[in-house]
């Protein structure tokens, strides 16, 4: 980890973040205030949040079998390390929708971030900008669209003005703009939908992502136990996108005085599913507003739906089961990724979501054919501990983890050596990750 003897390449040496942490500890005794081990990080988050915040971030559908399936699917794919490979120069960069990005990782859309830190979505948006990573904003956010865009821009400006370790040394340098995604929960009032799309586009969100697996919330017993639905409680966050929308407020300002849940019940988790024909309409409207920018469908779990999304004009899909929060007892997302890639992988962009915790997880999803992965709960746990610093620490740790993994496993380039490389993995059909007490589940 000699910082003076690191050859320059397309990617910064994210691995040096581990050395930085070690040096702070050795030189000044300054130790991290929380663990970035995923299981320990989730556990320590319980001490940082009240029950409403913790369970909103961590509740799953039913008894949580889909969440477990997500993690078990990662356990069953094993990395095959290669040796005596020159990995001194590594390339973690990739391209998504015409943008070169420094790593194949983006921030997933998560709602109500003010439950985890007072600045809410301004925190991950800023950190994403600092690191040059794509950020996706949820319709259920607790900050207005416009304010989140400003925070993302501020983070990107800091990155572009510095010569920090975050910057790439390749031809695009550290200044290449990452795409900014807006995740839409689409209600049944087209005027409000179009208002949201126009606001997002004017604020620099140049990819639209429609979520299709959450017309209403799944059955989540751990939230039921404490009536955990912040949108209904006076003085709590969750309605900021609606309350800052001129069309919604023109129609429902008086309704909000009587019913605080009008925004969430009417425009977000309304309980009335859309069909493919409505998707066709939305794609057309977004293309008109944005001048043809990409449209992504989130919620794909089978090859047949991936093919239909392609037929209807989607530019990309998100292979996700909403992190196990919607359908209990469903397949793990990584289980179905290979068949989806086989069906449409060379025709559209595939984003993977659900269960990413480590650099090894990122590696496995990319090796199975995903172009980019999304991380969600990790950054929420980080910001729950120390706001901007906590979020940044967790993400920089993930980047270091991936960088080091590629170094020691013998894979120098994420696109040339890892993407779609089944020889980099071996499947083990039995067993599962250790349960309580450290014993493997059979």
Automatic annotation (TrEMBL):
User: Any idea which UniProt keywords this protein has?
Assistant: Flavoprotein, FMN, Oxidoreductase
The GO molecular function terms of this record are:
FMN binding; oxidoreductase activity
Q: Any idea which positions bind glyoxylate?
A: 56, 185, 220, 322, 325
Please give the Pfam families that the UniProt record associates with this protein: FMN_dh (PF01070)
Superkingdom to which the source organism belongs: Eukaryota
Q: Which residues fall in a compositionally biased region of kind Basic and acidic residues?
A: 149-161
Q: Which cofactor does it need?
A: FMN
Q: Which residues cross the membrane?
A: none
Positions annotated to bind FMN: 109-111, 138, 183, 211, 298, 353-357, 376-377
Domain FMN hydroxy acid dehydrogenase stretches: 30-427
Name the protein family. Answer: Belongs to the FMN-dependent alpha-hydroxy acid dehydrogenase family.
Q: Where is this region: Disordered?
A: 149-174, 422-442
Q: Catalytic site residues?
A: 322 (proton acceptor)
Q: Where is the signal peptide?
A: none
Instruction: Write the protein's name.
Output: L-lactate dehydrogenase
């Amino acid at each position: 980890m000699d910082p003076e003897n690191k050859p320059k390449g397309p990617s910064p040496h994210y691995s040096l973040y581990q050395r930085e942490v070690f040096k702070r500890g050795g030189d000044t005794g300054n130790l991290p205030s929380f663990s970035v081990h995923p299981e320990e990080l989730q556990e320590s988050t319980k001490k940082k949040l009240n029950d409403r915040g913790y369970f909103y971030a961590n509740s799953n559908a039913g008894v949580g079998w889909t969440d477990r399936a997500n993690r078990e699917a990662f356990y069953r794919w094993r990395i095959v390390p290669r040796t005596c490979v020159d990995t001194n120069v590594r390339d973690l960069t990739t391209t998504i929708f015409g943008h070169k990005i420094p790593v194949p990782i983006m921030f997933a859309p998560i709602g109500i971030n003010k439950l985890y830190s007072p600045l809410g979505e301004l925190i991950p948006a800023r950190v994403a900008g600092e690191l040059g990573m794509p950020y996706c904003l949820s319709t259920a956010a607790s900050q207005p669209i416009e304010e989140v865009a400003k925070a993302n821009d501020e983070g990107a400006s800091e990155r572009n003005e510095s010569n920090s370790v975050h910057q790439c040394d390749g031809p695009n340098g550290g200044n290449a703009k990452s795409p900014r995604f807006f995740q839409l929960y689409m209600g049944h009032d087209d005027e409000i939908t179009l208002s949201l799309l126009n606001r997002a586009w004017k604020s620099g969100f140049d990819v639209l992502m429609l979520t299709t697996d959450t017309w209403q919330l799944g059955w989540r017993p751990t939230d039921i136990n404490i009536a955990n639905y912040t949108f209904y409680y006076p003085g709590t966050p969750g309605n900021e996108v609606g309350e800052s929308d001129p069309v919604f407020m023109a129609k429902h300002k008086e309704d909000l005085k009587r019913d605080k849940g009008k925004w969430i019940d009417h425009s977000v988790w309304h309980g009335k599913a859309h069909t493919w024909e409505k998707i066709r309409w939305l794609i057309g409207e977004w293309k008109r507003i944005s001048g043809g920018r990409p449209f992504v469908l989130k919620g794909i779990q089978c090859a047949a739906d991936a093919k239909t999304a392609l037929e209807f004009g989607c530019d990309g899909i998100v292979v996700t089961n909403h992190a196990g929060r919607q359908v209990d007892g469903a397949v793990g997302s990584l289980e179905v990724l290979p068949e989806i890639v086989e069906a449409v992988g060379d025709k559209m962009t595939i984003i993977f979501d659900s269960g990413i915790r480590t650099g090894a997880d990122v590696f496995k999803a990319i090796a199975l054919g995903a172009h980019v992965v999304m991380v969600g709960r990790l950054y929420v746990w980080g910001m729950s501990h120390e706001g901007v610093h906590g979020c940044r620490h967790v993400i920089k740790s993930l980047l270091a983890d991936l960088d080091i993994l590629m170094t020691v496993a013998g894979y120098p380039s994420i696109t040339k050596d890892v993407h779609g490389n089944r020889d980099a993995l071996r499947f083990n059909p039995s067993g599962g990750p250790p349960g309580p007490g450290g014993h493997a589940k059979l």
